[in-house]
Amino acid sequence: MTLSGRDTYRDELTKIAEDDDRILCLEADLGGKNHQFESQFPDRFFNMGIAEMTSIDMAAGLAEAGFIPFFSTFATFASLRSAESIKLAMGYMEKNIKIIAPYGGVSGGWFGTTHHSLEDIGVVRTFPNIKIACPYGEEDTRRVIREAVSSPHPYYVRLSRNESFVSLDRDDDQATIPLVNQKGNGNLCLLSIGEQGTELCKKIQEAYPEISHVHLCYIDQVSLRNSIAQLEEHGNTFLVVEEHRLAGGTASLLAVLMPDNRVYSFDCGEEWPVYGGSHQETLAYLAFDYEALEEKVKNLLSEGAEVNW
């Protein structure tokens, strides 16, 4: 059975912790009953309650003492309520803290606007020295957790909630390298970020097989800059598909980093989703769905993005 992102995180971290007693698990009242890590390592698990900023500050002290603290809570609370502590402890002092942020985007749809997170990547990306990852599927999530443990850098890992996906095949073991899922022979390339963006791009591929598709797992500024040469091998017109707002989104940064290319965004717009629903219902309210993406693709093709049929 394929696990969801947050369940994969707990499972992989618990396995790694069997051989590494530096790993600690902190939760802000989101662990629930029978948390896998807590059950196996009760003396290394801390439920911090609804105290996100304090959790980051405490993690900074633990990191300074040589531990590797993983802190997890809702993406919107992890990134926005804790922003000042993230800036100082992770960005400025580069403490080895790993934030795991489920409920990214509008995956907690039924909880309403307070629990939606369409700004988190933009906020965290303004702070230097933090690796930002949006894995797709179970195996990529496991790779990112393993890479976070072995890396001395602070991490922010954005996940969804309950949906589970099979990761795209990789020829290498590193999620840091952009994954070329399909290489077309035109100049239009889809860049997918996160689970829902990648799902949409996979479906577009079925209808438009000559359009290239590259999945980006790591999307902090340094990682994007290091990916540019490889991206430019797949076109000169890029459409970034990301469950985020335009402001602070990956497309807005790539447009600056790739001035000789055309970069467009397919995002969740500026609306506030004002009603609760499932993840897919909330995405449809924001027009982040297949029909809207296909229309965007058709418009780009009509404006001159070439696809050699």
Strand content: 15-25%
Number of helices: 12
H/E element sequence: HEHEHEHHEHEHEEEHEHEHEHH
Distance between the termini: 38 Å
What's the helical proportion of residues?
Answer: 25-40%
Shape category:
globular
Class per helix and strand makeup: alpha/beta
- Poorly predicted runs are none
The Cα radius of gyration reads: 19 Å
Largest β-sheet summary: 6 strands, parallel
Number of strands: 11
Average pLDDT rating:
93
Oligomeric composition of the shown chains: single chain
What is the strand arrangement across the widest sheet? 2-1-3-4-6-5
In short:
The chain contains twelve helices and eleven strands.
Give a description of the structure.
This protein is α/β, with parallel strands linked by helices and 309 residues long. It is 39% helix and 16% strand. The chain has helices spanning 5-17, 36-40, 52-64, 75-81, 83-92, 120-125, 137-150, 194-207, 221-231, 250-257, 279-285, 290-302, and strands at 23-27, 45-47, 68-72, 98-101, 131-133, 155-158, 179-182, 188-193, 212-216, 237-242, 262-266. The strands form two sheets. Strands 2-1-3-4-6-5 form a six-stranded parallel beta sheet, sandwiched between helices. The chain has a five-stranded mixed beta sheet with strand order 7-9-8-10-11, with helices on both faces. Helix 1 packs across helix 7 (137-150) and helix 3 runs parallel beside helix 5 (83-92). It is globular. The protein starts with a helix and ends in a 7-residue tail after the last helix. The model has no long low-confidence stretch (mean pLDDT 93).
